[in-house]
């Protein structure tokens, strides 16, 4: 069986779909095609076998794409710091043996009207929160995405620390909508804003640009954003959210797991460190699905667990911190 973390690390553009009782991932085929191969390759989540519906290529993702032996291990405490090499190009190291997304800048050094500052302020992130979590801005990225999807330039970088060690990071695009409803995506100082076109199927012409780009080699399924800060608040309660922005909005008693589908390893880490768990769901989570009940059952075994969606029908990242905690306390009292 192949995990979602493995797929997304290699194919950040991946889309999930349920098919005959298993998860199917649709990604861009990397071979040459007359039609581009965009979302033409399907990967069976149970077997790891892939098939391109455009060129007919098939095989095993584990054998053909994933070099598991070279992946970083977040649980590794003693690790020699090395500069990673890929295709004969040296990559800048951040620290603890983790590669950097590129040339990073402290957010405090940016002007008030800089897209990164405007973005975080619109989402209620203060300078204090930014510095507390070590959030930075990548001025010039060293990672280039396939199919013309841009680079890590112009992204906000969320570092992931566990037990004092940097185990990876996630870089998020900066996007906004103009007063006329036109979407704009920031590509860094060298390119500036790009303005995608909304297509007939409802997608945007920049859909090949990944919203999030995760540090190559980071074990997403074993990593938790905000772990150290939440642990420092005590073991009595933790709130699980889906992404770093949601985590920041909830506050220091919260963590995020880089997606809704918690892994067994993340569940073990959470249950071994906190006594009471609140699972704060995004509005689009299907609570009737098989995977949700499986994860809820695993979380609940031997632990006190509650889950809820905000009554405002907003995701945590779109909500007010005071209102979020008001609903959490009300939910705990009711249950």
Features:
Dna Topoisomerase Vi A Subunit, Chain: A, domain 2; 3 domains; 335 residues; 9 helices; 5-stranded antiparallel β-sheet; 27% strand; alpha+beta; 21 strands
Brief write-up:
The chain is of the alpha+beta class.
Structure description:
The structure is a single chain. This protein is α+β, with helices and mostly antiparallel strands. The protein has three domains: 4-68, no CATH class; 85-217, no CATH class; 224-334, Dna Topoisomerase Vi A Subunit, Chain: A, domain 2, CATH 3.40.1360. The chain has nine helices and 21 strands. It has helices at residues 4-10, 61-64, 115-122, 127-132, 227-232, 244-250, 264-273, 290-300, 321-334, and strands at 15-19, 22-27, 41-44, 49-52, 58-60, 85-86, 89-90, 93-95, 98-99, 102-106, 136-141, 155-162, 165-172, 174-177, 183-186, 193-194, 212-214, 237-241, 254-256, 276-281, 304-309.
